[in-house]
Design the sequence.
């Protein structure tokens, strides 16, 4: 299922030819589905880059590696599906929580997730009917700062801050005393940062340190010119 999703990323009419590296750039060169005048077409059974053979081998290699990590000192990892504002764990459960919350209004996460969801629904939807009950990804519980039907932009900003604060409160609840929360966040506006800081102040978590990091490539599409 993951390999089919990766094939879809590189085998669609929104893929462009990248002449600097002489290859097909997949549809998500940035966090959007762009319009193109022309597209580059991939042969999925060629055995070359982006083909089923290469993609499936890559996925299989990652899964093989990850399944060898557990040993007598480390428990077997567990993947759960849940809601950030109502975590399915008891109080003081974790030593640490690492999270990368939504970036305010930067990325339409659920809309972009639909690109993968529709293929996953066809490949593994029958194995997880509860997770794929809807035609597209659910949108109502998404924590993003989008204008609301009532109240517009200001209402969207308040909703984002309130939902994020509740998610942070849940992190504080499931952390052991003295536990560590690591939160990764990026935004270019003061409004985006204000919302996150207010949510933190209203969560019960205590900020002990902060590190500014440059994480993005300067050659990416957004950074050009």
Sequence:
């Amino acid at each position: 299922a993951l390999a089919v999703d990766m094939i879809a990323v590189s085998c669609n009419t929104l893929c462009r030819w990248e002449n600097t590296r002489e290859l097909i750039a997949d549809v998500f060169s940035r966090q959007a589905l762009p319009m193109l005048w022309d597209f580059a077409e991939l042969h999925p059974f060629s055995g070359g880059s982006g083909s089923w053979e290469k993609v499936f081998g890559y996925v299989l290699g990652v899964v093989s590696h990850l399944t060898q990590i557990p040993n007598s000192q480390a428990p077997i990892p567990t993947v759960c599906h849940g809601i950030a504002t109502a975590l399915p764990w008891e109080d003081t459960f974790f030593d640490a929580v690492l999270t990368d919350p939504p970036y305010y209004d930067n990325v339409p996460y659920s809309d972009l997730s639909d690109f993968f969801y529709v293929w996953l629904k066809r490949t593994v939807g029958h194995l997880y009917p509860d997770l794929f009950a809807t035609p597209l990804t659910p949108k109502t519980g998404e924590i993003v700062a989008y204008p609301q039907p009532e109240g517009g932009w200001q209402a969207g900003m308040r909703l984002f801050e309130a939902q994020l604060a509740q998610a942070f409160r849940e992190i504080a609840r499931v952390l052991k005393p003295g536990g560590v929360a690591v939160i990764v966040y990026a935004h270019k506006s003061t409004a985006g940062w204000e919302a996150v800081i207010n949510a933190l102040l209203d969560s019960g978590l205590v900020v002990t340190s902060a590190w500014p990091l440059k994480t993005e490539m300067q050659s990416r599409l957004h950074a050009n010119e």
Notes: Strands lie at 16-18, 23-25, 94-99, 175-183. The longest strand covers residues 175-183. The chain has a mean pLDDT of 87. The longest helix spans residues 152-174.
